[in-house]
Design goal:
It is built from 18 helices and 13 strands. It is α+β, with helices and mostly antiparallel strands and 507 residues long. The strands form four sheets. Strands 9-4-11-10 form a four-stranded antiparallel beta sheet. Strands 5-8-7-6 form a four-stranded antiparallel beta sheet. Helix 9 packs antiparallel against helix 10.
């Protein structure tokens, strides 16, 4: 019924809630009509109810005068250009009128939606339980932030011009029946016996009101409908040209990246003999993500180590393996790689550290390190910290994350197993592929991906040299009228079953 809107809390929704609560409690209080005392007296809100000696009337009475668009202040130069898109210039007057139109259009859509489903169907008291009420509330929340709403409208105007130019560049032509179909959907006339005939009267009323509220011409308002048609026609064309084929196959992948072909072939032979993949990664891969920082702590003082035996670590000689020590992280072993004193005279060390869960394993690692095994490899193999890397495990991925050379090998087979070594731009690669599966996206996912691709393309065009900012004056000239009470008749006391105070005219 309504388009998707951003949700949040705002004063306008609070008024909606108060009206509903009052209707539930009975006609004891007359709610305050939404108004803005800062606006021109030509606005509807200038006429509002006032107390009378006799109290509320038994029959609801009118509370507002017909809407008259506020006069723009003399200091606004409506002819001032604010942005140029290609050869087309958007002026401050164009922008202000469009903001007013979009406010009117959003509220008018809410009014028609509420009229269609009935006010009694809306329950604003339990957010998330009544989708129609949430959509109504979201509209008012969006409009409550006039600045953010104005920025949205500004960006929409830029994208519309870009799409129109792209449409013309491709020599595409508008079909009048497609534009008419937009209005038929807008007014929910699809089920009429003759929708084309039925759309005429409501469209005429809509255009008359939209012109009065916004200041836009009828032709400009019809142009907005044309923009929707152009976007619908361009989206599949642009998506087809710029998007990649959806990924249909995923698998669990592990990778070794070696510096030389000899290292890669040695790693492959080790794996083919039943060797552990992580061990092969730790011994032969040069991928930093696979083996992490190799336990490098950087230079640190005793306070940086922060455990009881840290003094013995600081005192150890360069090259020494010390530990294991019980710390808050687990059992730790250190290999001292460098020592120095900082400007304060405090001793600092640079070390590699291995963190494991048990003292038994820690003692075994100390023995292996002291008998000459590479400490970096031991970090990679056994440490629990992030400094041990990911062991070459890429997780569940598709071939698009692998090098093209490795991807071709994997695509040429439907089997799991080892692939490579193959020479790539980074070195020599081996991959272990496990658990292949076909992942077919559902229609909603494909539609969502197409929309995101189309939006990304539009944003790229906006950020290109096609758009030239001329002035930022529009940011401080975003109009807030019309007010919700002016275009949403259901937001009256009468709509909620409440009597209304006799109105007293104001100057």
């Amino acid at each position: 019924m309504f388009g998707n809107r951003r949700k949040g809390s705002a004063a306008l929704v609070a008024v909606l809630l108060s009206l509903l609560l009052l209707s539930a409690c009975g006609p004891t209080v007359t709610p305050v009509v939404i108004r803005d005392n800062k606006r021109s007296l030509t606005l509807t809100a200038a006429a509002m109810p006032s107390p009378s000696p006799t109290g509320p009337t038994a029959v609801p009475t009118a509370t507002s005068t017909p809407y008259v668009r506020a006069t723009d202040t003399p200091d606004l130069d409506l002819s001032q250009p604010i942005v140029q898109v290609g050869s087309e210039v958007i002026t401050l007057g164009d922008f202000r009128a469009r903001v007013r139109y979009e406010r009117f259009s959003s509220l008018e859509e809410v009014r028609r939606g509420v009229a269609l489903i009935g006010l009694s169907s809306l329950n604003f008291t339990v957010p998330g339980k009544n989708p129609a009420a949430d959509r109504v509330a979201a509209v008012f929340n969006t409009l409550a932030n006039s600045q953010a709403f104005g920025v949205q409208v500004y960006e929409i105007m830029l994208r519309e011009v870009i799409l129109r130019h792209e449409y013309e560049r491709r020599a595409l032509t508008l079909n009048p029946s497609d534009v008419q179909a937009y209005w038929i959907r807008r007014f929910n006339l699809q089920r009429e016996a003759d929708p084309s005939a039925a759309v005429g009267a409501p469209l005429e009323v809509y255009l008359e009101e939209a012109v009065r509220y916004s200041g836009m011409s009828r032709e400009a308002i019809m142009g907005i409908a044309e923009s929707f048609v152009r976007a619908a026609a361009l989206q599949p064309i642009i998506v087809r040209e710029v998007s990649k084929e959806p990924r249909l196959e995923t698998f669990n992948a592990k990778r070794i990246l070696s510096r030389t072909q000899n290292d890669a072939e040695t790693a492959l032979a080790f794996l083919q003999e039943g060797g552990d993949f992580r061990e092969a990664v730790c011994r032969y891969s040069i991928d930093p993500g696979a083996h992490g920082s190799r336990g490098d702590t950087g230079f640190t003082t005793r306070s940086g180590l922060n455990f009881a035996e840290s003094a013995s670590v600081i005192a150890a000689e360069i090259g020494a393996v010390v530990g294991p020590f019980s710390t808050s992280l687990g059992w730790q072993i250190f290999k001292i790689s460098d020592k120095r004193r900082n400007p304060d005279g405090d001793a600092e060390i640079r070390a590699q550290v291995i963190t494991v869960a048990t003292e038994t394993l820690a003692q075994q690692i100390v023995t292996r390190a002291k008998t000459g095994e590479d400490f970096s490899t031991l970090v990679c193999l056994y440490s629990l910290g992030k400094d041990a890397g990911d062991g070459g495990n890429l997780g569940s991925v598709g071939v698009d994350v692998l090098s093209p050379e490795l991807a071709r090998l994997i695509n040429a087979s439907a089997e799991n197993g080892l692939f490579g070594p193959v020479q790539t731009a980074n070195g020599y690669e081996i991959a272990l592929i496990e658990n292949r599966k076909v992942d077919i996206p559902n229609p909603e996912e494909l539609d969502r991906a197409a929309e995101q691709t189309f939006i990304k393309w539009q944003l790229e065009q906006v950020q290109s040299g096609t758009v030239v900012q001329v002035s930022e004056v529009w940011r401080s000239a975003i109009p807030t009228d019309p007010l919700p009470i002016q275009v949403a008749p259901f937001l009256t006391e009468a709509s909620f079953g409440l009597p209304t105070l006799v109105p007293t005219a104001t100057p």
